Hints:
CATH topology: Nuclear Transport Factor 2, Chain: A
Number of helices: 2
Radius of gyration: 14 Å
Strand order of the largest sheet: 1-2-7-6-3-4-5
Helix content: 25-40%
Number of domains: 1
Strand content: 25-35%
Amino acid sequence: MLKEVDKMEEIQDLELRGLDYFIGSERYYKLMDTLITDGIKYIMNNGYSWLITDALIVIKTKLINEEFLSIKLQVNKEKNTAIMLITDGNNRVLYKQYYNYTDAKRDLTLFFENNTLMLNSEY
């Protein structure tokens, strides 16, 4: 068990330095009856799984009929707070979630279309 914890800390990168490598997806994974891409799996493995889980819960319960969604995480590094905005892609905010504390280090933009969640660079 100790080796697993050490290994997890070794790979976790809250700065998401490898994010620029995701410009498409070779594989898809299933999460909460949704397809997720290699890029989404990468950010989940690096400390942002809470964002993906929260976004999918909202999408699957409140925004189920929307064809396209943009999910933006905006981080205030000075205050260690964040906000998740889910829009229709045309800046019409459909849902807001405030986080009073986060250790997230960067803003993110994700897209949801055809029951697939992806990074904006994988679109």
